[in-house]
Write a structure and sequence with these properties.
This is DUF4031 domain-containing protein. Residues 4-77 form the DUF4031 domain. It holds the Pfam family DUF4031. It comes from Streptomyces nymphaeiformis. By secondary structure, the chain is of the alpha+beta class. The chain has one domain (1-76). It has helices at residues 26-35, 55-60, 68-77, and strands at residues 3-5, 10-12, 15-22, 43-44, 47-51, 64-65. Strands 1, 2, 3, 4, 5 and 6 form a six-stranded mixed sheet that branches. The protein is globular and about 30 Å long. It starts with a strand and ends in a 12-residue tail after the last helix. The model has no long low-confidence stretch (mean pLDDT 93).
Length: 89
C-alpha cells in the first residue's frame, strides 16, 4: 500500500488543500479515502482533494508525506496521471 499526500498549500473555497494519490491503483486510493472519511465528490481525475484540517488524519492512517513534485512523480510513474483536458480512459 503506497498512498502519498502533499502539504496543504493549494487554496480553494476559502480553505487550503492537499492532494492524496496512490502509486498502485485507483481502487487502493478509493478504499483509503473512504477509510479516512473523504467523500467520493473529493475525487478529481487522479487524486482526492483533502482539506488541511484532515491532513493529519490521512498521515495517521498511513499516507506518506511528500512534496508536490514528488507526489506527481509517483502518480506519473504509476501510469495513473490523468491531466486536465485529456479524456479519461
Amino acid at each position: 500500500m503506497s498512498l502519498y499526500i502533499d502539504p496543504p498549500t493549494w487554496p480553494g473555497h476559502g480553505r487550503m488543500w492537499s492532494h492524496l494519490v496512490s502509486d498502485v491503483s485507483f481502487e487502493e486510493l478509493h478504499a483509503f479515502a473512504a477509510s479516512i472519511g473523504a467523500p467520493p465528490r473529493a475525487f478529481e481525475r487522479d487524486h482526492y482533494d483533502i482539506p488541511s484540517d484532515r491532513y493529519a488524519d490521512a498521515v495517521a492512517a498511513g499516507a506518506i508525506e511528500v512534496g508536490s513534485k514528488e507526489l506527481l512523480g509517483h502518480l506519473t510513474r504509476a501510469g495513473l496521471r490523468r491531466p486536465k483536458g485529456r479524456p479519461v480512459a
